[in-house]
Design goal:
Blueprint: H1 2-12, E1 15-18, H2 21-28, E2 36-39, E3 44-48, H3 53-59, E4 65-68, H4 72-82, E5 87-90, H5 97-106, E6 111-113, H6 117-126, H7 131-154, H8 161-174, E7 179-180, E8 185-188, E9 209-214, E10 216-218, E11 221-222, E12 225-230, H9 236-255, H10 262-275, E13 287-289, E14 296-300, E15 313-316, E16 319-322, E17 326-329, E18 332-337, E19 340-343
Parallel strand pairs: 1-5, 3-4, 5-6
Antiparallel strand pairs: 1-2, 2-3, 7-10, 8-9, 9-12, 10-11, 13-14, 15-18, 16-17, 18-19
């Protein structure tokens, strides 16, 4: 991975200073709250303070040197000067204005570039997952799926949304997750019409839909899934909308293929929902990439210009949300292959009524 970045920098005759935790994790498989990754066309250096230096030295294998950092001024900038860096590229999407100006002041001998080129280069490297990355995402997903099987035995009308969310998180952490992909969404009844609703103290009631959107991480890689289940009995309207979302979700998965425009995949699912009369109730994009961040490229939405390629991992998550009534979302992750896609989510999708 880092060799691809070196090749990009060698061709441009520049060096890169990477400061974002997610990109440092991607290139080093190491996480810390303080660290700098300096990469040239030939070498890579990781600098961190005394809290992390020993762990970094034991963990990182992708860098030529791992150095202890006292301060940016005392250690990092002199290193840049000693390497004779004439062009220093920064992550424009992941840096504050004040830090950009500070680096310019501290490295007067180099032209500091913050024009998005480095971001684009890294995105192109990260967008395709190799076998090891896929394995980490699948491992995280299997933990999430076991959590789903478990939570079906936990849900009852005595439980609140918060209790269900916490139980999901506790199960995942107890059963192999390194962390949570994001703050768990668990919303029920009228609250389920909120696509990114926050769990509340509302108790589950008979007739409720419960939408759970959550994931686990393993070795910095995320999983992401959504399931909507019902408690008691459902109305014909609820059942009909659920089946519409399920058809849209399955059709979206079938449309995920190498060489297909991301916007066209979105259109396949969106048309099914629109034809059922719910076009105004599906406001978000169909999906997004997943990796060391929960939202990565490519994006499946009506305006995306991206084309799917083998190695991309995307979510397919259509939904219908009726304000004041209920909502439904179903989400799987799919790996784009040379001849179609592999659904990385092996979890029941038919309507489950508890």
């Amino acid at each position: 991975m880092i060799n691809k970045l070196k090749a990009y920098l060698k061709e441009k005759g520049s060096a890169a200073l990477i400061m974002s935790e997610e990109n440092i994790c991607y290139f080093t498989s190491f996480h810390s709250s303080n660290g700098y990754l300096l990469v040239t066309g030939d070498k890579a250096f990781f600098l961190t303070d005394s809290r992390y230096i020993e762990a970094a030295q034991n963990k990182i294998t992708t860098c030529d040197e791992i150095l202890q950092l006292k301060s940016m001024e005392a250690d990092l900038m002199p290193l840049i000067e000693s390497l004779g860096v004439s062009v220093l590229e920064l992550e424009s999407e992941r840096i504050t204005v004040s830090r950009y100006h500070k680096i310019r002041e501290l490295v007067p001998s180099a032209s500091v570039v913050c024009d998005g080129a480095l971001d684009s280069a890294i995105d192109e490297i990260r967008i395709k997952k190799n076998e090891a990355e896929v394995a980490k995402i699948v491992k995280a997903q299997r933990i999430a799926e076991r959590a789903f099987d478990y939570i079906l035995t936990f849900i009852s009308t005595e439980k609140t949304e918060k209790e269900i969310a916490l139980e999901l998180e506790y199960f995942m952490m107890k059963n192999g997750a390194d962390g949570l992909s994001f703050e768990t969404i668990c919303v029920s009844g009228k609250n389920s019409s909120l696509p990114h609703g926050v769990p509340t103290d509302k108790k589950i009631e008979k007739g409720d839909f419960i939408t759970m959107d959550y994931g686990a991480t393993t070795e910095f890689y995320h999983s992401d899934m959504t399931r909507t289940v019902a408690v008691g009995e459902v109305s014909s309207k609820q059942a009909g909308i659920y089946e519409t979302v399920l058809r849209a979700q399955k059709a979206g998965l079938e449309a995920v293929k190498c060489g297909v425009n991301c916007s066209d995949v979105d259109a396949v699912s969106r048309k099914i929902i629109a034809d059922a009369g719910y076009a105004d109730y599906f406001g978000h994009g169909l999906g997004h990439g997943v990796g060391v961040e929960i939202h990565e490229l490519p994006t499946l939405n009506p305006t995306s210009k991206a084309v799917l390629e083998a190695g991309h991992i995307v979510t397919v998550e259509p939904g219908i949300y009726i304000p004041g009534e209920f909502g439904v979302r179903i989400e799987d992750m799919a790996l784009v292959t040379a001849d179609g896609c592999e659904n990385l989510t092996v979890c029941e999708k038919k309507l489950i009524v508890l």
